[in-house]
Design brief:
- The relative contact order is 0.03.
- The protein has two helices and no strands.
- The chain has 114 residues and is an all-alpha fold.
Length: 114
Amino acid sequence: MPLGGTAKKLQKVAEMAEDVYKKLNELREQVVEVRETVNETKSRVDRLEAENAEQRAILEAIAEEQGVDLDAAIAQAHISEAEEDAAGDETETVADDASESDADTSSDAATDEA
């Protein structure tokens, strides 16, 4: 009977090995897909960066032709963006404070009623 037990154990190990092999092949396929996606994304990013550089050169040429101080315009854009971000943060803080105040008032009212 010991041979029957060994045969079952060997069969179980063989099945486990097949499962591991299948999973390994699936993992290989996933890695290949990820590599392809990364390469495609890199190509897209490279293309977009080149287009961005071309557009910047065109905008700089137009700005120079129109007598626009590009550095001042960029600085003003950054200032405006920072002010908008600060205003958004302030609005969120005020809204959070109002929510907390409303919650405090509600809990005070509930306490008073009890």
